[in-house]
Amino acid sequence: MAEQATGTIGGIAGSEIPAVALPGAEHEHHSGKPISWIAVIVITIGFIIGGVGMVPHPTWWLFWTGAGVAVIGCITMASAKTFAEDWY
Prior knowledge:
The protein is mainly alpha-helical.
């Protein structure tokens, strides 16, 4: 992925070229809060546990354990307001 320019381009010294704002400069990229990443990791672990519980034949207690771990991750994500504050 190519790097995208953000911010402004200043004029060249001694020239008549003014500084211009680049498109997209008002939406700087940020990687989110650490609690949001922890919630995503917990949800992923829950899906992995649930998936392992389905191979080679359904082991329902392991599947539901994974589902419970994923729900805990979702609750963590909701309480951290991930989609309200970490979103673009």
